[in-house]
Write a structure and sequence with these properties.
The complex is a heterodimer of chains A (138) and B (163).
Chain A: E1 2-13, E2 18-29, E3 32-43, E4 49-63, E5 69-80, E6 85-96, E7 101-111, E8 116-120, E9 128-131
Antiparallel strand pairs in A: 1-2, 2-3, 3-4, 4-5, 5-6, 6-7, 7-8, 7-9
Chain B: H1 2-11, E1 28-39, E2 42-54, E3 58-68, E4 76-86, E5 89-100, E6 105-114, E7 119-122, E8 126-130, E9 133-137, E10 139-143, E11 148-159
Antiparallel strand pairs in B: 1-2, 2-3, 3-4, 4-5, 5-6, 6-7, 6-8, 7-10, 8-9, 9-11, 10-11
Chain lengths: 138, 163
């Protein structure tokens, strides 16, 4: 699949296999979108991307395989293209738009293949989950 | 006699002929050439062209095809409509193509290559092809020795290998 990236600047060190997009970074992948201040891409020997690390004002829109749409913000996000998993860190606020669920925590894992999200809170703060339950009509 | 001498002084004016200073004159011109530059370590530059004019301090080359053989790991080749090869700087203009034998290629309309530092710089917009990814930007600085790229105002298309 093709990834479209826009940024103010780009550096790449082909010896270490690390490329960095910085400054208003915008990434589009199919319907998914991610914005951040900086995105670091790690490539393997075949020069294929194996990991994306987004840092600073991360905001995202993600559609999972089963069509669930997730939207949210965090301080940091890691995407593993081989397993299609997202790892969000630092003040994560994740909303699942279809079912109106929300998760706030310090570490959230989103597996887009099975559409599941796992959350972990800070030591003193719990994970907050909000479910909007439609009340039965009287 | 005095009158004659005096009249020369009065009637004759010095002609104002502009002194032509031949400063930048072509020394020779060669056509359809291949130039090899060697040093004790071996062959480090190959330059071909349809026409080259040699001046005291530079070559101007048409249809330049310049190969820097110095880098042990990757050979860099540059082609352009025109090139100026002066000291250790190659200035390329018109349909510039920079190719490295590991597959990196970039195209622009103007680039300056510094043989000493192995930096090639373009600030007039470029398109680069790396493997099956495409990178566009307004400025690029690429170092063939350190394998490093820096670019500004970037638009990239990267192919993902997703299972």
């Amino acid at each position: 699949q093709e990834l479209k990236v826009k940024s103010n600047s780009f550096t790449s060190d082909q010896n270490s296999g690390i490329s960095v997009f910085s400054g208003d970074v915008n990434i589009l992948k199919g319907q998914d979108e991610l914005n951040a201040s900086k995105v670091t891409i790690y490539v393997n020997k075949e020069k294929k991307p194996t990991k994306f690390v987004a840092d600073g004002n991360v905001s995202f829109n993600i559609t999972s395989k089963d069509g669930a749409v997730y939207k949210g913000v965090s301080g940091r996000a890691i995407y593993l293209p081989n397993t299609k998993e997202y790892y969000f860190y630092e003040n994560v606020h994740l909303q699942q738009l279809n079912d109106k669920k929300e998760i706030m925590g310090d570490e959230v894992v989103l597996k887009t293949t099975d559409g599941k999200a796992y959350a972990k809170g800070m030591k003193k703060e719990p994970v907050i989950m909000i479910f909007n339950i439609d009340e039965e009509k009287k | 006699m005095l009158v004659v001498l005096a009249s020369i002084y009065i009637f004759f004016k010095p002609l104002n002929i502009k002194q032509q200073a031949f400063v930048d004159v072509p020394l020779f011109e060669i056509k359809d050439f291949t130039m090899y530059e060697l040093d004790p370590t071996g062959l480090h530059t190959i330059m071909l062209g349809s026409t080259a004019t040699r001046y005291s301090n530079r070559y101007t080359v048409k249809d330049i095809d310049y190969t820097d053989n110095k880098n042990k790991e990757y050979i860099a080749n540059m082609q352009a409509n025109n090139g100026i090869y002066k000291n250790d700087i190659v200035t390329l203009t018109g349909n510039v193509t920079y190719t490295r034998d590991d597959g990196l290629t970039f195209k622009t309309q103007k680039a300056v290559y510094n043989k000493k530092t192995s930096d090639v710089v373009s600030n007039v917009g470029y398109v680069a092809y790396m493997n099956d990814s495409v990178l566009r930007g307004s400025y690029i600085k690429y170092n063939n020795e350190k394998n490093r790229i820096f670019s500004k105002n970037v638009r990239a298309k990267i192919q993902l290998q997703e299972r």
